[in-house]
């Protein structure tokens, strides 16, 4: 951890207003500390003093690890920059940020467990934290996703569930107190592209970012959680090599630590092989090859909505069960298949899958039960919707997203995501090399006591531990198996086998 001393200028009281007008259009000033540079080619602000800002309310300029920046110390404070550069057809926004506390994923506030914290870094509205009203902004978040860039008002999920939308994000970030992070966003409106970078590394992109909206004519900077420095805006989308060069030119020496954090999240890799053998304590509980006529017909279909039902396909063939969801982007073009019954105990599940579409998303669910540990589908019936709401809110379950090719997710690699629901507890996020279309893979999902292990072709994707003592419910060991396809997904399945064994007496730590 960085131990450099932080210093700050005296906090400015609420009500003070500083306004340094922009330089005359067309002039270019050096981007040294304490200067404001503005021209037809872009805008640069050091944020080391009030120059170039309209400041109102409590704030201070403070040094962190040798770099000086701006911190707003009240939610009522404002740091305004007047510019229309975000309206440019192409553009790049970058800035350095330093969190004043260690930040990573958290469930949210106690009274609203599904609402994460949003930390506005740049926004075109005030209050800057009004994320839904903002038509342009860059937000750090303590929820999912963890870093969000937007070019449209409203909720990301409300927009993206029904069509192309200009949002790009990083699923997971770790921000350490006392370190500086270089954030960058590039956009290309005609090309429908947005890309987000941290410390020179691409963390998220959207290659189908339709529906860009017109941002406001001013930007609001910062919040009490962050110190901001070196804001830069320009009307061109610089490439990845240039983003990395700019980061390297001002890279703090101690960023070896933070770069290692992000490589662990962003570089495709597998974990150590599974060290558990399926011995005699494991008994066969269910088998289905999905290759013979009528086999698998007793699996329960949930969704898609009636409007799209004719556009889905479910066929049992000699090659396996073929599932295809409707192509339209809509909340009702998703579907689930649920096992004919629930299972109890530790679970060892394996089956083959073959991606047959270049895009889409497929996930696997284990231990899906109702909130009282009841067999949800036997007690309540099958919901009419294929919405994600079923596993995120209505069921207790573990879900693993193993094939992910939708608009705002990285498609240069195969991102992986494991969560415990309905608590929204993220158990694992990483990436592996991209899976090939029309090739068979063997997937294994193991829930053994507290341990959750997942592999593809025997190569470990995750090996994590659940815990009944961390305010996220008990360790699950009962429920149905679920397969879910998002829109525009085609996949084939075969040779599914489940082994179970009795779960140990208690999942709490001894003593």
Q: How would the blueprint of this fold be written?
A:
Elements: E1 7-8, E2 17-19, E3 36-39, E4 42-45, E5 54-56, E6 59-64, E7 67-72, E8 78-82, E9 90-99, E10 118-123, E11 137-141, E12 147-150, H1 156-160, E13 167-170, E14 181-188, E15 193-198, E16 201-206, E17 218-221, E18 226-234, H2 240-249, H3 256-266, E19 283-288, E20 300-302, E21 313-317, E22 320-324, E23 335-338, E24 343-344, E25 346-355, E26 360-369, H4 376-380, H5 389-394, E27 396-405, E28 414-421, E29 425-432, E30 441-448, E31 451-456, E32 459-465, E33 478-485, E34 490-501
Antiparallel strand pairs: 1-6, 2-5, 3-4, 4-18, 5-8, 6-7, 8-17, 9-14, 9-18, 10-11, 10-17, 11-12, 12-13, 14-15, 15-16, 19-34, 20-23, 21-22, 22-34, 23-33, 24-33, 25-30, 25-34, 26-27, 26-33, 27-28, 28-29, 30-31, 31-32
Describe this structure in words.
With 511 residues, this protein is mainly beta. The protein is built from 5 helices and 34 strands. It has helices spanning 156-160, 240-249, 256-266, 376-380, 389-394; strands at residues 7-8, 17-19, 36-39, 42-45, 54-56, 59-64, 67-72, 78-82, 90-99, 118-123, 137-141, 147-150, 167-170, 181-188, 193-198, 201-206, 218-221, 226-234, 283-288, 300-302, 313-317, 320-324, 335-338, 343-344, 346-355, 360-369, 396-405, 414-421, 425-432, 441-448, 451-456, 459-465, 478-485, 490-501. The strands form 5 sheets. It has an 8-stranded antiparallel β-sheet with strand order 2-5-8-17-10-11-12-13, with no helix packed on it. The longest helix is centred in the middle third of the chain and has 11 residues, at 256-266.
